[in-house]
Design goal:
Blueprint lengths: L4 E6 L1 H5 L6 H10 L5 E7 L3 H12 L4 E5 L10 H8 L5 E2 L1 H13 L8 H7 L3 E2 L4 E3 L8 E4 L2 E4 L3 H15 L10 E8 L3 H14 L4 E7 L12 E8 L1 H18 L2 E4 L1
Parallel strand pairs: 1-2, 1-3, 3-8
Antiparallel strand pairs: 4-5, 6-7, 7-8, 9-11, 9-12, 10-11
Length: 262
């Protein structure tokens, strides 16, 4: 079975609109560049019970999951604690994380790890037992991995190189393993409900091919043609997509609807 990738973006600031999420589009780009795709994404609050439920559910699957945010040491950071609760373990200081944090403190001119400030910094290295370190090239403060889940900071400058490093070190055998192709056309003056039978027929006749329907109001805001239209298309294995698209084109042409090839 092909790998399915998921993404959690954590933070009340995203849900309240105080900050805009940039992780979703970037993770999609990182995956697409490697012939992979994102299967799902979810935004989560800084609420421990909600996080425990979400992590428990995703850890029970075989999905490869990236989680951005909430691994710091402030009161609104709950990711580390929630992961520990989801796997039924208690947090403990990871020795490699402790060494990396101590090195960072020394770089900041604060080598005494017995100070209250540095003891607080060390809590960022407390992970569920059995966790693996994800190096952070930005400031040494690591993320962690457990099973097929990878927990990184919410800061894009830290998170994105860490996600990329995980992909390039652990999943290279899956890169471009299942080539996908996509073709589409634009159809005008037709209700979306009228094309549903065509799409169902395509999926029935071409196993492994998926159809899609993307309506546009034609107001020009999406950068496309300023007329109401629907983008109809097919996607799937390249050896099947051309034939499926030709069947789609013929069906649209037979319907008498105005259409434009992409």
């Amino acid at each position: 079975m092909p790998l399915r990738f998921g993404l959690f973006v954590i933070g009340d600031e995203i849900l309240s609109g105080r900050r805009s999420d940039r992780h979703l589009s970037r993770v999609i780009e990182l995956l697409r560049a490697r012939g992979l795709s994102l299967g799902w994404a979810q935004y989560l609050p800084d609420e421990r019970a909600t996080l425990i439920e979400a992590f428990g559910r995703s850890l029970a699957t075989q999905d490869v999951v990236f989680s951005c945010g909430g691994i710091g040491s402030t009161p609104d950071d709950h990711t580390r604690q929630a992961v520990a609760a989801a796997v039924g373990r208690k947090l403990e200081l990871h020795p490699e994380a402790a060494a990396l944090i101590a090195a960072r403190c020394a770089e900041l001119g604060q080598p005494d790890m017995t100070t209250a400030e540095n003891r607080q910094r060390l809590t960022m290295g407390e992970f569920p037992p059995g966790s693996r370190i994800i190096p952070n090239p930005f400031n040494r403060i690591p993320g962690f991995a457990i099973a097929h889940h990878y927990f990184v900071p919410g800061f894009p400058a830290m998170a994105w190189p860490m996600v990329e490093a995980v992909l390039d070190s652990e999943y290279t055998e899956h890169f471009h393993a299942e080539p996908m192709a996509e073709r589409s056309l634009l159809i005008f003056g037709t209700a979306e409900s009228a094309v549903v039978p065509i799409l169902l027929e395509i999926e029935r006749d071409f196993p492994g091919v998926r159809t899609f329907s993307l309506p546009s109001l034609g107001d020009g805001r999406d950068g496309r043609i300023a007329r109401r239209h629907i983008e109809l298309g097919v996607k799937g294995p390249p050896e099947r997509v051309d034939a499926a698209f030709e069947a789609l084109r013929r069906a649209v042409q037979t319907s008498g609807a105005e259409f434009l090839m992409r």
